[in-house]
Structure formats: structure tokens, C-alpha cells
Design brief:
Elements lengths: L2 H17 L1 H37 L3 E5 L5 H12 L4 E7 L1 H12 L18 E6 L5 H9 L4 E5 L4 H40 L2 H9 L4 H38 L13 H29 L5
Antiparallel strand pairs: 1-3, 1-4, 2-3
Helix pairs in contact: 1-8, 2-6, 2-8, 2-9, 6-9, 8-9
Length: 297
Amino acid sequence: MHIRTLGRHFRESIKSLGRNGWMTFASVSAVTVTLLLVGVFFVIMMNINNITSNIEKDVEIRVHIDQAATKQDQEAIGKKIEKIPEVDKVRFSPKEEELTNLIKNLGEDGEVYKPFEQDNPLMDVYVVKTKTPQDVIKVAKQIEAYEYVQSVKYGQGYVEKLFHFVDITRNIGIALIVGLLFTAMFLISNTIKITIVARRKEIEIMRLVGATNSFIRWPFFLEGLWLGVLGAIIPIILISTAYYNLYEYVTPKISIKFVELLKFSPFVYQISGILILLGGLIGVWGSLMSVRKFLKV
């Protein structure tokens, strides 16, 4: 295709938007409403996924070493844990550090434990992080069988429920997003089809005078692209403004470290890119599918 021909297609596609003002408005409105719903749902699901991921990352295994174990025994346990394929990080926490952390975490109530600093009843601990949170249960059971391991704690009973809840949330989110995208494609493409159907005579005439299929398709291809992109602009503005205000209002009020919203930047730019891409793809797809049925005269 020559550059001159491509330029003609660009000009014709833009002029067509103005010539068919009401149909353009209807198509852009359909894209706007649908992408607004898609965008809001994406924002909700991506923030839920971020929170659940932070909770999963916070899961760790605490291996309490028997007080009868010598220093060599402790080091041997640490080396065995490091050799487990699913283990990512291993950190040794001596009982003095454990008591200090206990007193600090309890605040004023921790003062009662200060007399135990000279005769510390706590045990040395290995803090273990796995490569994936789902490996925690498997690794904990393996470590539990080691000699001189007094106990292994990983939130047994709660961790299983957490992983189950996270899996359900993600599966439901994926299903809803896929369903919403298909609904968006159906609604938007049907609206664009109405625009194309209203101009079927124009297509038939172009076909009869010898215009090739590609020559006819290109203006409609570009027109669908403009409709999709134009329809994404308002959702992007509304979602960006609303999310900025929500982020500024909620973030200072959240005190739990793993419950936090995704940062405004680059998150909003990612959402904007997704909406523009979706709008453009759906607009192009709707136009091409509609034009194709009129190319046979």
C-alpha cells in the first residue's frame, strides 16, 4: 500500500466520523459505558490480587530449635533447610532476638518479660521463606521430621484457609473479567455493526466500481480504531481521577502493612493502556466483522 493511499484512508476515516455524527456518538457512547465498567472492575480485581499477594508473601515458617541442640546441631539444621529445593531464604534468629521482638511487639504489656532477659526461656528460631507461598505446608512437614526440631509453626489451619480463599477469589475474578470482556465485545461490536449497516450502500457501490476488498476495509478498519480509542478517553479520565482521590484518602488511614492500594503511578497508566488497547481492538474487530458481510455483491 502506498503512503498516499494510506493517507487517503486516514482522511476518509476521520471525515466519516463527522459525516455520521449520531452513529459515531452512539458507538463511542457504547464503548465508553462498557470500558468504564471493565476499567472499574480491573481496578478492583488488581487491588484485591495485590492485597492477597502481600498476605501470601507474609506467610513464613518458624522452626523452633530444641534447647538441647549444640551450635553444631543448629548449623546442621540450617544447612539441611537451605538444601530444600522449595526454600528461598533462611534466617537464624537467636533466642535473645526473639525475646527482644516479643517485648517490642507487646508494647507496654511486654515490660513483664524484661526480667527474663538474664534467664531467657525462649528457643532459637530459623525463619524460613519458600519460593512460592503454596510450598509452605510441604516444607514445614519436611522440616518437622528433623532431629532437634522442637516445633514448626506456619499458621497451621489458617494458612490452608487463606490459600483456599485466595484461589477462589482469583478464579472468580478471572471468570468475571473474561465474561465482562466478552459482553463488552458483543455490545460494542453490535453498535459498530449498526453504523456499518447504515452505510451498506456505500460499500456496495465501491465494490461495484472496482474497489478491492482491502481498499474498502482500510477506512472502516481505521474508523473502528478511532471509535474504540475515543470511547476509552472518558473512562480513563474518570477512573484516573476517582482512583487518585481514593488513593490519597485511604492510604493514610491504612495501618496494616499488607493491606495497601496499588500506587497511583504506574498503576493508572497501566490501566489506561489496557483500556485504549481494548477499545481499539474491539472497535477494529467490530468494524471488520461487519464490513466483511457486505464485500460480496
